[in-house]
Amino acid sequence: MNLLAQEVAQPSIDWHALAPEFVLVSAACAVLVADLFLPRGSKWIAMPLSAAGIIGTLAAIVSLIGTETTTLSGTFEVDAFSLLFKALFCVLGLIILAISFHYFRGGSYYQGEYYFLLLSSLFGGLVIASARDLISLFIAIELISIPGIIMVALRKGDAKSNEGALKFFLFSVMSSAVMLYGMSLIYGVTGSTILSEIRTSIGADADQPIIVLSVFFVVVGFAFKISAVPFHFWAPDTYEGAPAPVAAFLSTASKIGGFVGLLVLMFKAFPEVADMWAPIFAVLAVLTMTIGNLIALRQQHIIRLLAYSGIAQSGYILVCLALINPDNPGASEQAFGAAVIYLVIYGLMDLGAFAAAVAFARKGGSYFISDYSGLWQRSPALALLFTGFLISLAGAPPMAGLIAKLFVFLATIEAGVYWLAVVMGVNTVIAAWYYLAVVKKMFFESPDVAERVEVPYLLTAAMGVAAAALVALLIYPPLLTNLADASIF
Amino acid sequence: MSWIDDWGLSLATFLPALGVVVLMFLPSARETLAKITGTVFAGLALIVGIVCAVRFDYGASDQIQLEVDATWIESIGARYHVGVDGMSLPLLVLSLLVCFLCMVYMWWHIPEPGKPKALFGLVLLLETGMNGSFVALDLILFFVFFELVLVPMYFMIGIWGGPNREYASVKFFLYTLFGSIFMLLGFLALWINSGTETFDMIALRETTGGASDLFQNLVFLGLFLGFAIKVPMWPFHTWLPDAHTEAPTVGSVLLAAVLLKMGTYGFIRIALPILPDAAVTFAPIIGVLAVIGIIWGSLCCFAQTDLKRLIAFSSVGHMGFVMLGIATLTDRGINGAIFGMVAHGLITGMLFFLAGSMHERYHTREIATLGGMLKQIPRFGTVFSYAAIASLGLPGLAGFWGEMLALLGSYQPAEALNVELFRVLMVGGGIGTVLTAGYMLWMIQRVNLGVVPERFESGKGVFDVQRLEWMAWAPLLILIVVAGFYPKILLGVTTGAVQNLTRVFGG
């Protein structure tokens, strides 16, 4: 009797550590309920409500700064790493709200439902930053993807939207199945789902082929989620079919969520067997960078271009994972820090580029690059901001993309993998070509139509903040690098 | 005034960047206001630069002065370390001066499609990159500034350039980016090899002694790619004629006068002192490529029909002399190289100003359609002859000393180098000077002399030098003759720093 009582006793829960998640979930529910009672013309109020919820979440995150704790029986950890990414998800969420507002208000979309789904997905991001066991990792990643699938399909009447959602759904389910299979094998071998316990258990007998197999399955599952080549096929079609703000979400927040999960898993559970999986990532990285870039060269549609460029960009982050070496902890830490820095800067610059694409297509524009000609004369501010983001993606000053690339190069050299550095170098030049092609259209050609492009203040402000942050990070990188250093496990 | 010793260089570097920020918030309709703002910021930077030059202790020009060494990216050991010595000060002043003169010149004329606010802003941004490259003493800081010039120059060529501008601008950007990536890899390899995780150019000199030959040579190769493309050395020069020909006048001027020097400066500031052994290995290769460049560039000049393209190819030749001087690894050669850099900046900058102004008058740059300029607009024609003759290296003008010292240096190169080879190179370079004289005189003959072609006989639109043009050009014209008659004005500054550098080569 006594024994039974002990077993069902509640584990002690650190409510403060969970505060950001609670705030965000409450906000999501509030949005859903409020939507029921809002008159048709006022549905847009869901957006400021969501923004307030995210700001509240940010406040909760700020209140946790400096905390290092685990709760829920060691499956949920709050540390510098998780707080950095929770804050990043919130900031990206706010920018996505700014992109979404006019887009969804103008179209015949389900505004309340959309904001609810977006917040749910962000909630998944918050959880994945803290998840420290296989089950919560899996739930978190599904929490990011599944609302994403519905959001892609929001343009119900559009065949492309349906096609994109269906592809996303099928690939997502398949990759989940593969990932789960790998996870179940790991559980079978180690007898635990908690990452730190898996690590100790694997350290004892690392040579078992079953471990190789299970890690391979898990990596493949994640490779689908982060659209690494050759598991990338769904991404461009899905992005193109989805409402543009959703594509922006998938390319940034959702992808970063996948990477966070991957980093946690690889560093917390499998560092002892890194010599086995690091080469897999090297191959994935080279394929992802090179093929992503080469296909991007031929794109005529800005969303598809950004999709392929996003694929290529994730190649650089995969490089960081390929550099892990249990015998060289210094180099491994450098690589981890580089991945964190790259993810944060990538999130800002890629989302900025999506925001600019949406701003242009909103009125009088389109998503075809050929229509960008002379944008400079139709809206100087938009052209300048767009160029800033593209130049950042290309990795040239005065934007922080250079810093992101610098740290990845540095980690690669420190790990002594020179050939990867050369491959990255060549890829950087290839990528500059297609980013510049868009810039060229905007600035070097005269406009086909003289009509000015009006950009809503909200959108300009969001882009301006992202661009200013990128410039600031170039001038004084310690703003970010110190955080990244602190967040190394 | 002691604060200027600390922050003068930073001020000279970042005042133009501040100007860009101010310009961004000005309404684009107020064109005059934009022009004033741009000129004022470039002028302020120039004044600060002159004050720095005055505070500089010329007795100790081998020492880094006006130094600031502050924390920057602590986690990787990159620092905000700036300072100048006798090698970098002349180039910094050159950059400040030429940028300011470009601002003045742009009051006279801005090519299609106008937009002075954007053009002035880009020149200012470019200036920050150029000044920063010459004062940076930390490799990462240097790299950021080195890369910073790409974007503004890309836009200058692409927006205000000639008919083939899209091709030229992208070629410029990608070519340079390609080189600088390998340069960066070299920097990072030096960092890892240092053991102390430092990017400091001075501190790194002590760290490469123990490294293997293979390592040193590979790193040097990386740096070589970055700098040689920027110079540009034959066979990496093909972006240059396109960029120069298509760029607007101020773009060509800045490209020739300052941007190219960032490559040669990189050799003497970074590659040679940090990797002296590899420099000895590479010196013969650099020397041979330099002489091929001299002769190739000169021969190409004979075949050019476009005035700007001709001057661009003459740059390939002149920068070949600079590289030949560097390859000798001697006091004489490197002093000559720095002299050549400054002289080429003054003279070729001037020639590009002239080519631009001629285009405004004749609306063509085809040499074959021009003629009799001296007859029709005598002052302009005289200035043109003056600059062209300075360019061919007439004694008494600035162009002479760089070539002479480079050739003299290759007569007796550093001990470790093959004397026979360098004497052959000297002969090659000597042939180059004859060819240079040949095409320059031929150009003067075709453009300045002869009869005025029928289509320009009316003299409509063909006016003589304007007041604003005089204002922009006079400093260059004066400095060309001053440096020619009194080379010590420059050699006196550079010698100390150069001796400091060549000590490792037994010079």
Please describe what this structure looks like.
The complex is a heterodimer of chains A (489) and B (507). Chain A contains 20 helices and 2 strands. Chain A has helices at 2-8, 19-37, 46-63, 80-106, 111-130, 134-152, 159-190, 195-204, 209-225, 234-241, 244-268, 274-296, 302-322, 329-362, 375-378, 380-394, 401-415, 418-444, 457-475, 478-486; strands spanning 69-71, 76-78. The two termini of chain A are 41 Å apart. In chain B, strands 1-2 form a two-stranded antiparallel sheet. Chain B has one domain. Chain B is mainly α. In chain B, a hairpin with a 4-residue loop joins strand 1 and strand 2 (78-84). Chain B starts with a helix and ends in a 5-residue tail after the last helix. In chain B, helix 9 runs antiparallel to helix 11 (249-274) and helix 13 (307-327) packs parallel to helix 17. Chain B has helices spanning 2-24, 31-55, 88-108, 116-135, 139-148, 150-160, 165-194, 201-204, 213-230, 239-246, 249-274, 276-303, 307-327, 331-362, 373-376, 378-391, 398-411, 419-448, 467-485, 488-502; strands at residues 65-73, 78-84. Chain B is 74% helix and 3% strand. Chain A binds chain B through residues 337, 380, 391, 396-398, 402, 406-407, 409-410, 413-414, 418, 421-422, 425-426, 428-429, 432-433, 436, 440, 443-444, 474, 476-478, 481-482, 484-485, and chain B through 28, 72-76, 125, 129, 140, 143-144, 147-148, 150-151, 154-155, 158-159, 165-166, 169-170, 173-174, 177-178, 181-182, 184-185, 188-189, 191-192.
Largest chain-chain contact?
A-B, 34 and 35 residues
Percentage of residues in DSSP E strands of chain B? under 5%
Strand content of chain A: under 5%
The radius of gyration computed from the alpha-carbon positions of chain B, rounded to a whole number of angstroms, is 22 Å
Query: Rounded to an integer, what's the Rg of chain A over CA atoms?
Result: 22 Å
The largest sheet of chain A, given as strand count, sense and whether it forms a barrel, is:
2 strands, antiparallel
The domain count of chain B comes to: 1
**What is the 3D form of chain A?**
globular
The order of strands across the largest sheet of chain B is 1-2
Task: Give the CA-CA distance, first to last residue of chain B.
Answer: 38 Å
